[in-house]
Automatic annotation (TrEMBL):
Belongs to the bacterial ribosomal protein bL25 family. CTC subfamily. This is Large ribosomal subunit protein bL25. InterPro entries: Rbsml_bL25/Gln-tRNA_synth_N (IPR020056), Ribosomal_bL25/Gln-tRNA_synth (IPR011035), Ribosomal_bL25_b-dom (IPR020057), Ribosomal_bL25_C (IPR037121), Ribosomal_bL25_long (IPR001021), Ribosomal_L25_dom (IPR029751), Ribosomal_uL5_bac-type (IPR020930). This is one of the proteins that binds to the 5S RNA in the ribosome where it forms part of the central protuberance. SUPFAM superfamilies: Ribosomal protein L25-like. GO terms for biological process: translation. PANTHER family: RIBOSOMAL PROTEIN L25/GLN-TRNA SYNTHETASE, ANTI-CODON-BINDING DOMAIN-CONTAINING PROTEIN (PTHR33284), RIBOSOMAL PROTEIN L25_GLN-TRNA SYNTHETASE, ANTI-CODON-BINDING DOMAIN-CONTAINING PROTEIN (PTHR33284:SF1). It comes from Halalkalibacter oceani. Residues 180-211 are annotated as: Disordered. Keywords: Ribonucleoprotein, Ribosomal protein, RNA-binding, rRNA-binding. Residues 5-92 form the Large ribosomal subunit protein bL25 L25 domain.
Length: 211
């Protein structure tokens, strides 16, 4: 059974009304698509959180407006208050299930790099990979195995392209992860000599005075 999230139309778009919505536990949103007109809506915050946990960030679900009109949608944009960790606004995009779309898929590193055991530092550089496919084929995540990486090794997009079932649109040369050598502790040169220099000058000056 498809996941259903209920939404209500928003008639009052004033800032005061939007703030009151959030106080009441709702999240202001907009529903739009290539075949429908943009429509301001709101959803219950707790229900939306449950939906995201169930289908994932790139998942598809039905948005039911006013208890009758159902739209097959995905989350196109999500604004979050970083201080309060609250949802501020959501963009719901109605998808055409027969047309390919672009999506950003999260990257998850798996395994343990041998280079890390040797003191190297695993540097995760690319957290999302761009893909193009049918909405129903969008992966929830792309796993990248780092268990073969020694110090100085890296994995680029080209290295995982054949392991992903959908088309990757990110550039082959983009680096996903690398194992950097440990930072070397270099002792500054000349410090000791510089510290002694004022003392030598002082002694010379003293001898000249005494003469």
């Amino acid at each position: 059974m498809a996941t259903i999230l209920k939404a209500s139309p928003r008639e009052d778009l004033k800032g005061s009304a939007t703030r009151q919505l959030r106080k009441d536990g709702y999240v202001p949103a907009v529903l739009y698509g290539n075949k429908i007109e943009s429509q301001p809506v709101s959803v219950e915050g707790v229900d939306f959180l449950k939906t995201v946990r169930e289908v994932g960030k790139n998942g598809l679900f039905s948005l039911e407006v006013s208890g009758k009109n159902k739209h097959q949608v995905m989350i196109h944009d999500l604004q979050i208050d970083p201080l309060k960790n609250e949802y501020l606004h959501i963009d719901f995009f109605e998808v055409d299930m027969t047309s390919e779309i672009d999506a950003a898929v999260p990257v998850r590193l798996t395994g343990e790099a041998p280079g890390e055991k040797e003191g190297g530092i695993v540097s995760h550089l690319m957290y999302e990979i761009s893909v193009k496919c049918l909405p129903s084929d969008i992966p929830e995540e792309i796993s990248v195995d780092i268990s073969g990486l020694a110090i100085g090794d890296s994995i680029q997009v080209a290295d995982i392209r054949s392991t992903v079932q959908v088309e990757i649109t990110s550039d082959d040369e983009e680096t996903i992860v690398t194992v950097q050598p440990p930072a070397a502790e270099v002792e500054p040169e000349g410090t000791e000599a510089e510290a002694k220099e004022p003392e030598v000058i002082g002694e010379t000056g003293q001898e000249e005075t005494e003469e």
